[in-house]
Amino acid sequence: MSVATDGAKSRPRRTPGRADAGGPPRARPTRPARSGRPAGARRGGWTPWLYLAPALVVLAGLLVYPVYQLGLISFLDYTQAQVSGGEPTSFQGFGNYAELLSDPQFWNVLLATVVFAAACVLGTMTVGCALAVLLTRVRALPRLLLMLAALGAWATPAITGSTVWVFLFDPDFGPVNRVLGLGDFAWTYGRLSAFALVFFEVVWCSFPLVMVTTYAGIRAVPTEVVEAATLDGASVWRTWRSVLAPLLRPILIVVTIQSIIWDFKVFTQIYVMTGGGGIAKQNLVLNVYAYQKAFASSQYSLGSAIGVVMLLILLSVTLLYLKLLRRNGEEI
């Protein structure tokens, strides 16, 4: 009796809990991590940069160093005399930029470049998006033929395409003037007609990227969305404006920025089709203007200054465009 009592006294008393009452055992709550990021993200934070390191090294060699040299030369007095070693190179500071900004021809060329690039971007986006919608509404064989024709224009080198367009619009041998009944009208003699000719060629070789990219985006849109708009009586234009364009806005943003960059720095088409800038340099754009200053006039510092100005303009336009989109609530 005493042994049982002593054993009962020495046995620890258990407090009845929820597990004793027949309920399932509750797991202990885990403490949240101190950082807001998951542990896996913290451990692998440098892994993506390691994969990107080779590409970043190549980009640094192909982009960062040339831009550095471009900016450095723009602050120097660097002409043919300095290149040949006849005169020492001297530091000019912002003297080259002051000379450039005080030149009325620079402002005329800048205005022509902005207007021409804006027209090319608008034409490229319009033609590319319209043909992308057309591809979704034609049968397989016409769609294949249109794709092959567009990809052929896209794959044609710029200098080859420019030469072909000059032949097509030649006043003596070109078939376009004969079909249109223009006689011996010379497209490259007038300023507006020469810019129009280059505009058509730039749009011709640029719209396939917009068309293919937009077509791929349309194919990714659920068919029920487009069918619902059609059943509601929406026209093709209304379906594009109210349904497809908002859904494809991220894709359209990318191709628009690419078109702005490419069309603003167009060189080959202007140089080949207008003979280096047209009669009396009436068809100059900034890229051709920089080439003439740097290589035709051996004023390498002024040519570099024009290149830096172009780079700053493109960066400003791109950043402003992205800022406006973010202000409107778009995800970039």
TrEMBL record:
Keyword tags: Cell membrane, Membrane, Transmembrane, Transmembrane helix, Transport
Give TM segment ranges: 49-68, 109-135, 144-168, 188-210, 243-262, 300-322
Return the annotated region ranges for Disordered: 1-41
Tell me yes or no: is Cell cycle among this UniProt entry's keywords: no
Gene3D superfamilies per record: MetI-like
Domain of life of the organism encoding this protein:
Bacteria
The signal sequence is none
Compositionally biased spans, kind Low complexity: 18-41
Query: Which Pfam families does the entry mention?
Result: BPD_transp_1
| Record-stated family | Belongs to the binding-protein-dependent transport system permease family.
Q: What is this protein called?
A: Sugar ABC transporter permease
What does UniProt list as this organism's lineage?
Answer: Bacteria, Bacillati, Actinomycetota, Actinomycetes, Kitasatosporales
